[in-house]
Amino acid sequence: MKPGDLQPILDLDRMVHEPARLAILTVLAQAEEVEFQFLQRITGLNKGNLSSHTQKLEGAGYLTTSKAFRGRIPVTSFRITVEGRQALEAYRKQLRKLADA
Amino acid sequence: MNAPDLDRMEDLTRRYARYSQGAAGLGGVLGGLALLFQGGLLFGHGLADFVRHTCQCPTRSLWKFFLHNELPPPLWLQLEMVAVPLAWWAARVVLHRWATRTLGEVQEQRMGFRMAWKRLDILSGLIGGPALVILFSLRKVLDGNPTAWSPFVLGLLLLVLQPVVTWTQRRSYAAEDLGAGMALFLAGSFTLNYGIGPSVALLVPAYLVLGIAYFFTGLWQHWHFRKVRKELAALEVPE
User: Fold this and answer.
1) Rounded Cα–Cα distance for residues B188 and B196 (Å)
2) Which residues of B touch A91 (CB under 8 A)?
3) A50: exposed, middle or buried (C-beta count within 10 Å: 0-12, 13-18, 19+)?
4) What is the pLDDT of residues B118-175, one digit of tens each?
5) Judging by beta carbons within 10 Å of its beta carbon (0-12, 13-18, 19+), is residue B14 exposed, middle or buried?
6) In whole angstroms, what is the distance from residue B239 CA to residue B223 CA?
7) pLDDT digits over B90-106, tens only?
8) What single DSSP character describes residue B128?
9) Which candidate from B3, B14, B100 shows the least CB-CB separation from A30?
10) How far apart (Å, rounded) are the C-alpha atoms in residues A88 and A80?
11) B 4-43 near A (Cβ less than 8 A)
């Protein structure tokens, strides 16, 4: 990377680059399906922020949401999609390149 | 946001997913104990029959005696053979909910040796166990020696329930406790359809080995679960 060349940084996927969304995708990539409670605990996000970020990721096609009831309690779970996994992997590669340059 | 770094997040997620499955190991502990109990009960009951028999026919070996005598289970034992797997199933569902009530469920990724093991367990629960019992029962009917007592309905109940339980619980089961449950169903179903003697001769030694293995694997899994739960509980959660 030449000094002053910002293009590789601008090329980073903004959807993944945001720290909270990066954390969400990182966690989801390690499991088949993750419930809201666990995701909130491990990412340290509040409910509103977590909902907002997962909605953005779902809109980008990086995760899917499923809602069910356990008894009378509503349970929300998330799954990373193939596109989400690919985006996370591509982002990591880009970051490694930037760090090596 | 007050969260651990990404590497730690990955590690905690993987470990929680692995050790929270199967009621955090307690399904295996319970299944192991139940298998040892069932194996001991069948052997004890069979042994009492053997002692009674040796008074009349003292030359036969213990194994041959079990193999060649059906020894129909009494009604209380028939009911017990059905009740124990069902009680294990119910307890396991309750314990799994208890184990994941604060942190929620995380399903382990379907890859590697453990997932192959789990698939094998699921296949044996869906097809293998019931097929084994059906084959043995068919053989007996073809030999012109159908079951002389009447636990058929109870045996059939277990035969039908085993695949149902396997299918409905397949997601929250761990490879470590699914096998214990399937062995419990098989124990009941085989004994009800085929008698105590062949069950003791052919399956009880396996139940005893499996019981010990599942008990200690479950304990190990539960110890790891408690450790990861403690680490997760130490993280701050904003309102």
Assistant:
1) 10
2) none
3) buried
4) 777 777 777 777 777 676 666 666 666 655 544 566 667 777 777 888 787 777 777 7
5) middle
6) 30
7) 998 899 889 888 889 99
8) I
9) B14
10) 10
11) 4, 6, 9-10, 12-14, 16-17
Tokens in use for A42? 């491990």
- What is the DSSP annotation of B61-104? -HHHHHHH---PPPHHHHHHHHHHHHHHHHHHHHHHHHHTTTT-
Cβ of residue B115 closer than 8 Å to a chain A Cβ: no
DSSP state of B45: H
Summarised one tens digit per residue, pLDDT across range B198-233 is: 788 888 888 889 999 999 999 999 999 999 999 998
- Beta-carbon count within 10 A of A48 CB: 10
Task: Name chain B contacts of A73, Cβ cutoff 8 Å.
Answer: none
Q: How many CB atoms lie within 10 A of CB A29?
A: 15
Q: Are residues A64 and A81 in contact, defined by beta-carbon separation less than 8 angstroms?
A: yes
The structure tokens listed for B127 are 């097809």
The span from the CA of A100 to the CA of A30, in Å, is 26
Tokens (6 digits) for B26:
């307690």
Enter the tokens of residue B123. Answer: 């296949």
Count Cβ atoms below 10 Å from residue B7 Cβ, excluding itself.
9
Q: How far is CA A40 from CA A48, B39, B103, in A?
A: 10, 44, 9
**Model ipTM value:** 0.89
Token code pair at residue B187: 């124990």
